[in-house]
Amino acid sequence: MQVARQFSQSAPITLPRLPGTAKPRQPQRVAAPAGPRLAQWVALMRQVLPLVLKPPTATTPEEQELIWAAALEALESKTAVRHKLTVLCREYGWSYQGLFATHRQELAAKGYVVTR
């Protein structure tokens, strides 16, 4: 939160904590989980891709459990990446919210989202 308040132009943002006790968001502590988390999610998504293309009514309970595990892994990966972005913003003096504002503008320019 301290990083968010320091580098954000508007209201502070919140980030979920990484597993374990509270630790300072230092590059060596944050970079480690981001890469493996993304690799685990990509590997799991390769397994579940054929399953998510089926309607939910056509999947077995075992397949639904695998899809659930992939969704949880996606959230863990997202958390690790958000923590890494927080550290990068702090180190380079960037605004975290400014980073996402730029991202939203790029998505809108590509037609992926509609801006308000």
Q: Key terms for this structure?
A:
single chain, about 120 residues, mainly alpha, flat
Can you characterise this structure?
- The chain is mainly alpha-helical.
- The chain has one domain (26-109).
- Helices cover 67% and strands 0% of the residues.
- The protein is built from 4 helices and no strands.
- It has helices at 2-7, 27-52, 61-92, 96-109.
- The protein is flat and about 50 Å long.
- The model is unreliable at 1-12 (pLDDT under 50).
TL;DR?
The chain has 116 residues and is mainly α.
The tally of strands reads: 0
* Tally of domains: 1
Q: Which class do the helix and strand fractions yield? A: mainly alpha
Low-confidence stretches are 1-12
**Average pLDDT rating:** 78
Largest sheet, in brief, is: none
Q: Could you spell the SSE succession in H and E letters?
A: HHHH
Query: What would the principal axes of the Cα set say about the shape?
Result: flat
Q: Level of helix content?
A: 55-70%
Q: Count the helices. How many?
A: 4
Distance between the termini: 27 Å
Rg over CA atoms, rounded to whole Å, is 17 Å
**What percent strand?**
under 5%
List the helices and strands and how they pair.
Blueprint: H1 2-7, H2 27-52, H3 61-92, H4 96-109
Helix pairs in contact: 2-3
